[in-house]
Amino acid sequence: MQAGGVGLRPGDLLDRVQWGWRWWIGQLAQLVPAPMREVLAGSDDALFIDVREGELVVSRQTQTRLHTIARIPRDEFAARTLRLAVPHETGLRRWLSDPIILRMPAQLALVRALELPAGARRNLAAILRHEVARQSPIAVSDIYYDYRVTGGNETSLDIELRIVRREPVDAMAALCREAGIALADIAFDDNADGAAGGTFPVDAAAARALKLRPRIVPALGAIAVLLGLAFTGSLYLHGAMIAGDLSGRIDQARAHAVAVQRLQRDLDAANRQASFLALQKRSPAAVAVLATLSRLLPDDAWLYEFEMNGGEIRIHGFSASAASLIGLLDSSPYFRDAEFRSPLMQGPNASSQRFDIGFTLRTPP
């Protein structure tokens, strides 16, 4: 692959991508308010055992202050004394307690500044295992070391390597183990930041807890967000289920209402028919007129409405020969003045017409 005339190996390209990603994340972090960054960064509280020239000092460091717990003179160095001075937690509280860090004097450490290629970041621990032999004036079997990444860019990586003889470190680490203290880290009193890696004899579980500590608060925040989203989603699904149930009930009620309306229309029609028949029974003249019409009209004619108001009669119906009905009615000795009250219209089929005829009663049948 060529970029700007210079060949890039896949590893170099990956390094540049990683460097760009870290730069971008750093820029985004600057947009977060400082108080929130402090919360998301986790707590820096810790218990320190400081090795000084004539004493051991046990103290608790918080974000706001440093509280001295005990001072143990050198002639009283003993596991029992140290066990009494350092607070101990057991069970679940042990995982939530502050990490314990042994802090050695800075003058015991030999510091080397190294500049490595940016690609060394992928296998930094293995590279430094070979590099420390070249940097240390003492045999590798007689030293401990740790390192920190102090800077870098897309092409290089700045490393601070610290080397210390084993004897003083082993003596204090053995005293802490005898006192039942699980050391999370071994540091020096001139450094503020923890090491990225090293070979100091610390408790593996405590060291892992120390490395995971900055991620606990963000992880809890992420879990809280996920729980909030899950709760919101459950409320939405519950609401959707209720809405679906209500919609089904509304549809069912609407169907029942349509059925009731249909039954009501049928009932009204039946009531009208019953009222009409009752009225006709009470009016013998109307019954006689209907009987005369049924004999006079041809077989292809039928009525769906009959009105009689005194001597005025109006009939509505269908017939295949609707135009001839006027002559039939006028030729009857009982009716006269027959006429269409509205134009003939197409009936329910092609061979029938709808008619609306009004006429006058000549003499009662």
What would you note in describing this structure?
The chain is of the alpha+beta class and 365 residues long. The protein has 3 domains: 44-202, Nucleotidyltransferase, domain 5 (2-Layer Sandwich), CATH 3.30.420; 214-277; 283-361, Gyrase A, domain 2, CATH 3.30.1360.100. The chain has 9 helices and 16 strands. It has a 5-stranded mixed sheet. Strands 12, 13, 14, 15 and 16 form a 5-stranded antiparallel sheet that branches. It has a 4-stranded antiparallel sheet with strand order 7-9-8-11. Helix 3 packs across helix 6 (166-178). The radius of gyration is 52 Å and the shape is rod-shaped. The relative contact order is 0.07.
SSE layout:
Elements: E1 2-3, E2 6-7, H1 10-31, H2 34-40, E3 46-51, E4 55-61, E5 66-73, H3 79-85, H4 92-96, E6 100-104, E7 109-117, H5 124-135, E8 143-152, E9 156-165, H6 166-178, E10 183-188, E11 197-198, H7 204-282, H8 284-296, E12 302-309, E13 312-319, H9 325-330, E14 335-340, E15 345-346, E16 353-361
Helix pairs in contact: 3-6
Distance between the termini: 115 Å
- Specify the oligomeric state: single chain
The CATH topology assignment of the largest domain is: Nucleotidyltransferase, domain 5
Count of runs of 4 or more consecutive helical residues: 9
| Sheet with the most strands, sense and barrel status | 5 strands, mixed
What CATH first level of the largest domain would be assigned?
A: Alpha Beta
Q: How many domains, in number, for the residues?
A: 3
